[in-house]
Amino acid sequence: MVYWIILPADPPSDTSRPRNAAHTRVAILNAARTAFARQGFEAAGVREIAASAGVTAALVIRYFGSKENLFVQAVVQNFSVVGLLEGERARLGERLARYVLQKESEAGGSLHPLLALLRSATNEQAAALLRTGLDAQFIGPLAAWLGGPEAEVRAGFIAATLLGLTAVRSVLQSRALFTADTERLLAFSAPVLQGYIDGPDIS
């Protein structure tokens, strides 16, 4: 006698399910932020970003059009200072310093969005995008909020201070800052930033 064993049909593969466009977009942006922060604009590849997000390179281009536009949306648009301007003016220096230092701690010192700026600035194409974005989303709005004498220059010094802190601590990993306690670094950096916020005493 012959016995026939009927096996259950294989479940449909994940590829048979419709793709969630919003989730896919977020996955690509997250993968791009990681790649650009770790490697910079020039070294980070679309294929690598796509693989990390679990999609194809063709889909990345379909969603974002180009590597340059992906860089803008993943990195440059994260420089907005607006959320940090909410709260007491007298504590803005602390908020700015804490934002940078806590982001570094949360990311293990490797994924802070400012690192993408620092590691991409040597590429002429990326530098132009970064310069435009930094001026439009950080320095310009901050200067308007600061007001008073030399507001744009003061905003520029604030940006330079934050970038310098990130560069020395996370890129160069200078022992003096890399191993220092976050609260201790806040105690040093917040008053410096607050000095630019308050502006020169012209009374």
Describe this structure in words.
- The protein is mainly alpha-helical and 203 residues long.
- The chain folds into two domains: 20-74, Homeodomain-like (Arc Repressor Mutant, subunit A, Orthogonal Bundle), CATH 1.10.10.60; 77-198, Tetracycline Repressor, domain 2 (Orthogonal Bundle), CATH 1.10.357.
- Helix content is 67%, strand content 0%.
- It has helices spanning 21-43, 46-53, 57-64, 67-74, 92-106, 113-120, 124-146, 151-171, 175-178, 182-198.
- Helix 1 (21-43) runs antiparallel to helix 2 (46-53).
- It is globular and about 55 Å long.
- The model is unreliable at 2-18 (pLDDT under 50).
Topology:
Layout: H1 21-43, H2 46-53, H3 57-64, H4 67-74, H5 92-106, H6 113-120, H7 124-146, H8 151-171, H9 175-178, H10 182-198
Helix pairs in contact: 1-2, 1-4, 1-6, 2-3, 5-8, 5-10, 7-8
Quickly list its features.
mainly alpha, 203 residues, 10 helices, Arc Repressor Mutant, subunit A, globular, Tetracycline Repressor, domain 2
Quick description:
The protein is an all-alpha fold. It contains ten helices and no strands.
CATH 2nd-level architecture of the largest domain: Orthogonal Bundle
Q: How many beta-strand runs?
A: 0
**Cα end-to-end separation:** 107 Å
- Give the SSE string: HHHHHHHHHH
Using only C-alpha atoms, the radius of gyration works out to 22 Å
Estimate percent helicity: 55-70%
Biggest β-sheet, characterized?
A: none
Name of the CATH class of the largest domain:
Mainly Alpha
Q: What characteristic shape results from the CA principal axes?
A: globular
The average pLDDT score comes to: 84
Structural class, from secondary structure content? Answer: mainly alpha
Low-confidence stretches: 2-18
Strand fraction: under 5%
Number of helical segments with 4 or more residues = 10
CATH topology type of the largest domain: Tetracycline Repressor, domain 2
